[in-house]
Write a structure and sequence with these properties.
globular; 552 residues; 26 strands; alpha/beta; nine-stranded parallel beta sheet; six-stranded antiparallel beta sheet
Amino acid sequence: MSVTGVVACLGAAAGCAAAPGGLPHLERRGAATQLIVDNKPFLLLGGETHNSSFSSADYMRPIWPRLTAMNLNTALVPVAWEHLEPEEGRYDFTIVDDLIKGARANRLRLVLLWFGSWKNTYSSYAPAWVKRDGARFPRVETSDGRGTERLSPFSPAVRDADARAFAQLMRHVRAVDGQQQTVLMVQVENEVGVIPQSRDHSAVAEAAFAGPVPDLLLRALAERRSQLNPELRAAWEAAGGKTEGTWQQVFGDRALTDHLFMSWYYARFVDRVTAAGKAEYALPMFTNAALIRPNYEPGQYNSGGPLPQSMDLWKAGAPSLDFVSPDIYFDGFVSWAEAYTRPDNPLFIPEARGGKGGAANALYAFGAQKALGFSPFGIDGVAGEGDREGNGRGDGGLDDAIGNVYGQLSKLAPLILEKQAAGAIRGVVMEGEPQRAARVRIGDYIANMTRAPSADGNVDPASRVGALFLQTGPDEYLIVGSGDSVLTFTSDRPGPPMVGIESIDEQVLQAGDQIAGRRLNGDENGQGQVLRLQSGDAAKGIAYRVRLYRYK
């Protein structure tokens, strides 16, 4: 084995073992599971770069300060197997070291994305020596025997080669970063699954499909029967709730069964890779899912990924993973976020839309679902360029909407984390034209949101607006908004029936402090009836301290 590339372990007296304060890790604190960094909860304000940006230190050089300018504290960046191990047994860590250097120089943390055997179902980031040796490293096959650009999850040779490379990556990260801990978490593979058919039809896969469902899975399903995903449980029970049998005997002759079958074998593969990495450096690790468009069947989406209906299989098959994550680009952000928030699965969103919609979604995720972090994709886009969902950029390629709301969240992060743990935080978002209003319970009150006219006097019926509520007293809330909206307040709790606004005070958020601004009254709060959130608030660093009262 040969190695290229070394970064100095800053601050290490001898060697680069893990910092004495402990590794970044997940910890249950009150009502929330939180990421602990430097012995304190950490609110991850992230952004993922485009897929190829990481491969050139010169390309990344001007990008790092742009990320800092957008108030990110963490960059999500790929590390590719093809660069790490260009020849079997020869490891080159130059790109990894450049990423760590770049992040440190700009006071950023990193989440590394391991593009190993799969990226968006394909095996395009595997090394050439793997791609060219189909006999040793077999591919997923279609039903008519054609190979595909996907390495087989049924291949021990593929799995073990991937695991060896990933272990070397994690050993190196520990050696160069165990003290400073620039790298916080690692994603293992990226959006796994098969398309355009719903499962692998190679000989080994067909034998597994015709064989018995593994006992390990069946025992796990039986233990969690009452807590299983409803779609999974319905399929299992419709087929008789069997505790033995083939895949079709246990789950039925339906397309979902193909997805569940592939999910199990992808999970087992990913678990072995993850375990190999954690044996070297046990950072929190996760994998991500490409979600389903409405009415799509397995094979039209990445069949086998960690989707809600297969999450229980992934939990049983890949216990080395700390959680699984959704890449949310589609409408229905709230329902997707809810599906990935479980007692055994904290919400982290590694890919999402940016722009104004992303800013509103971020407030909802941190407030309603107590998310670990949020990360728009293509955060390094250049001026005039959009992300893959078409969100535009401001001057210098900055996502101003994300940058502004991250600026507010970064200043409130300690309070947000405290209130997540205390269960005294809420969030709301309005999605798309069909949604005319939204409401959320905040303590003894209900906040009711509607869209409001923007600066041009018009109401955009399709705009995405959101708000984050931090309860700072029995009747007091600190509120951060994104977009133009109006909030009114009601209550269905015992007591006087009417809710009044006692006061609204602007709070100008600065590092480590809140500076009192105007007290809003009269025309500015509808004669004491409403709170108006404006799209320019985030750029000005304005939040609102609202005090409510009851009367009859």
